[in-house]
Amino acid sequence: MADVPPRRPRRSHRLRSVGDADLRLRHKVVHGYRRAYRMAGQGPALVLIHGIGDSSATWAELIPDLARTHTVVAPDLLGHGSSDKPRADYSVAAYANGVRDLLTSLDIESATLMGHSLGGGVAMQFAYQFPERTERLILVSAGGVGREVNPVLRAVSLPGAHLALAALRLPGMRLQVGLFAQLMKLLDTDLGQDAPELLTLVDALPDATSRSAFIRTLRAVVDWRGQAVTMLDRCYLTEGMPTMLLWGDRDSVVPVWHAYGAHEAMPGSRLEIFEGAGHFPFHSDPARFVALVEEFTGTTRPADWSREHWRELLRAGRPGTAAGHPDTARNRMVERGLKDASERSAT
To answer: Does residue 284 have an active-site annotation?
Structure first.
C-alpha cells in the first residue's frame, strides 16, 4: 500500500464572527444514546474534549475565536453535561470510540484533537487507536501520564463515594464548601487557584444519575493509589504527530511535572507553561491560550500517517528498551512513570 501524500496545513483566510446561535447545544443519537455537542465555524476541524465532571460549556469563551479559522466541535462526553448518562462503559478507550463515531456522523474524517484533563487522555487514546484520523494533538493539563492526582479524586474512587457526593447536596453544604474554597484562595494555595472551577463540578452533579456516571468515569482512570491508566509507555508513537502541551505551573489536580515527563516522552513535542495558572489555563489566560492554539495549528503540517511508519515505530519499540541502549532523553521523573506503566494501561 502506497504512502498517502503529505497533507498541507489548511488555513481559512475568511474570518467569520460566531453568534450565540452557533454556540447552542445540538444533539445526535449514536448507538441509541443522545449525545450533546456544540459546533461552530468553518475550516479544518478542531475537536475540544472536556475533563471529568465538566462539559462543553467549559470552552464557551474560546469557541467564538477558534471558530473564526476552524470548524470547532465540542462534545459533552457520555455521562456528562447534557448527554445521556446510561450505565455504560466509561473507559478512556470507550470515550475515544464515542468521539470517533460522533465525528463520523458529522462527516468529519480527521481533526486536531484538544483535550483537557481526562479529555487529554481521551485525545491521546484517540490518536493511539485512530492515528490516521488525527492531525495534531493539543494536551491541556492532561491525565494519563503520571500516577499523581489530587487526593480528593483518589478518595472519591473509594467505596461510599455515592454517599459522600450526595451529602454535598444537603442544605448548607454548598456554602461550607464555598467558604473552604475561598480560604484556600486567600491562603494562595494551588488548590485555591482551581477553586471556582472545581466548585462548578460539584454543581454539575445534581442527581444520583449524574453522580453515578461521574464515579464510574473516575474509577475507570483513578483508584486509591492515583491514576490507573497511562499513555506514557506508548508516547513514542507520536513521532511525526504535531503535539503541543499546555499546563499551569500551579495545577492542583495534575501536577506540572507530568507536563515535563510527557514532553520528554513525546518526540518533537512543544511545551508551554502558564505561570500562576492552575488546572484550567484556558480560563486563566484565554487570550494567550487561543493565540498559541491558532499559531500551532497554522504553522504545523497535519500528521502524515502511514502503515509502514506505524509498523516501524512499533518494531523499534520505546527508545531505551531495544538492544540495551539507555534513553538519555528521559529524566528520572519520566523513568519513574515508565516503571509505573508496567502495571497500568490505557487500553
So the answer is: no
Residue 62 to residue 271: CA distance in whole angstroms: 20
pLDDT at 323 over 80: no
| Residues 157-190 pLDDT 10s | 778 777 666 555 655 556 556 655 565 556 556 6
- For 117-164, write each residue's pLDDT tens digit: 999 999 999 999 999 999 999 999 999 888 888 777 777 777 877 766
- Does 279 qualify as catalytic in the annotation? yes
C-alpha cell at 34: 443522545
d(CA 238, CA 160): 39
Rounded distance between C-alpha atoms, residue 103 and residue 134, angstroms: 12
**Close Cβ partners of 300 (under 8 Å, ≥ 6 residues apart):** 9, 136, 242
Tell me the Cα Rg of the chain: 20
> Of 117, 157, 212, 252, which residue is the catalytic one?
117
Cell (9 digits) for 295: 499559531
Of 284, 278, 258, nearest to 341 by C-alpha is 258
Query: 79 near 95, Cβ under 8 Å?
Result: no
Of 279, 283, 284, 340, which is the active-site residue? 279
Of 91, 251, 258, 283, the active-site residue reads 251
* DSSP symbols for 47-100: EEE--TT--GGGGTTTHHHHTTTSEEEEE--TTSTTS---S---SHHHHHHHHH
Is the whole-model pTM more than 0.85?
A: no
Q: Is 251 a catalytic residue?
A: yes
C-alpha cell at 33: 444514546
